[in-house]
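Dear support,

We are seeing what looks like truncated structure output for some complexes. This example has two components. We would appreciate it if you could run it in full and send us the complete token output so we can diff it against ours.
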Amino acid sequence: MIGEGTQSTNQRKHSFAQDHVEVGFFTDPSVCIGCKACEVACKEWNEVPDDGFTWTGNSYDNTGHLGASTWRHVLFVEQDRTKGNQIAGPMSLGNDSEDPFRWIFLSDVCKHCENAGCLEACPTGSIVRTEVGSVLVQNDVCNGCGYCVVACPFGVIDRRPEPLPDAGGAFKCTFCYDRQKSGLTPACAKVCPTESIVFGRLDDLRARGAARVRTLQGQGYDDAQLYDPQETSVGGIHAFFLLLGEAEAYGLPPRPQIPTIYLKSSWAAAVVTAIGAIAAVGAAFSFFA
Amino acid sequence: MSADRNFEERLESWRKEAKHGGAVSGRGVNVAGGPIPRRPGYYGEAVVRPPVWTWEIPLYFFAGGAAGMAPLFACAGLFLGLTDLARAALWITAAGAIISPILLIMDLGRPRLFLNMLRVFKYQSPMSVGAWILAMFGTFAVPACIAFELHLHHVLSGSLDTFVAVVAEVLTFGAAYWGLGLATYTGVLIGATAIPAWFLHHVLLPIHFGTAGLGCAAAILELLGFQIRPLFFLGMFVATIETLLWLWLEFDKHGPADRALHAGGSGWLIRSGEILSGPLPIIFRLTNLVPLAAVSFLLGALLSRFGWIAAGRVSGKDPEAVFASQG
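Here is the complete output from our reference environment:
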């Protein structure tokens, strides 16, 4: 919680990697101030190259979306709705009607799915599950086939284009695996000045997230909810979010599915086609030869 | 003061225009991403990532499909003693077995690490299964062609020649077995993804790709001069199936979720591909224009493969497609 100081799980050293404890991120937009320190810390620690200096015109967000060179991405959501008990006033001159407006910041990141599409899809075994439950791309093994890119239901992982360093491989958030091995917290959580990003034991964080939703709802944030799709085939995410309003406004899929659920019927169709092809060739050459 | 006033009034007129029309025309004005988001999702940003694959992949689907189904004709030729047919089919098989991995490796982000594909086997990854299928196919296809040529030219004598003939037959059957997988797995590969236009048709895709592969192998053989009755009827059969698949696709619409298959450039690529490989070859065959039917089918199969990849790219960039497919 805020005010825990050095007792916060974001600041103290830990031994989660040694103890094989499942860890996670809980990202809470209700306290995010949109400073983008997480983006900067992530880039600096992980030596992620720049992803283009572009002006999107999308509020104060000139990052765009997560990708091979963007592992944290602060969203700037603008909505014509009130935030909690906010008093809406007229937005413009000479207009007495109320124009409710709210600005929400949320730091998006790889979800580290319980059932990860990228991990299942990877043909080289480059993508693995670590002892802290995160999903890690082993950069030296990846040959850049690009299959994880279309297998991720959240559009997180991407192939890094030329001429950036290590181009051709697939990249995404590593959950600062190297820092965690040394008992340090991930760089983004470490620098977050408001503890909008909280790092800690997954079970603790889930309880904390549920409590935070209850608190916010008590304070008038009626549309506060947790985004942690446990009921779909993804089976929950290790980096989960508190959302104000619906998931779509944050560019998050409302009911994400892991693509492996289509394998059974698709392979069945392939087998039927193969048998059909044998039968067709057999019939053509037996009856018409 | 009056300058501020003018500025505010100009802003106010933009806001009104934005609220009514959803967007404002003019340079440097992106009101859709301004005060009130009006594009779907988060400023219209993609929710899933579109495929990074370039032209090599649809071309590989085409080459691998034709080469994968070709050894079936080699088997038929061996059974019925049609040596020329078997020989031509084996050459198609071998050529495809060589071209396919080259195309795949060219598309890799790090081509030098292509052997990592065979580092593990993962049955839950169609890419891994496919890499192994292609490797096994190549292992059987190229030696089958070489062995058959050795036998035809009687390079070896006596019992060794008989042995080579038997080896060629066994290798051909092996190539046919793995080839069936090669021609159909590509449909599973793009069907089992997070791209709405693809996964909504994950049953149709392997049937379509397999049928197109079978038709392409038959069409190439016809163009090589084997205008025989079995290939004619097979050509009629695959064109009928392709017509039915086209109708299936036209009727099994999912609204915004798979509009990339029906609208825009990608939609027209798929549609023209289906017409070229469905109804047109039937008409050409009925009017006795067999070579034209074969060319039309091949062109249609090629266009359709490019169309499916293009549709995946469009669909992956379309946040509404993702939301609609999960609604």
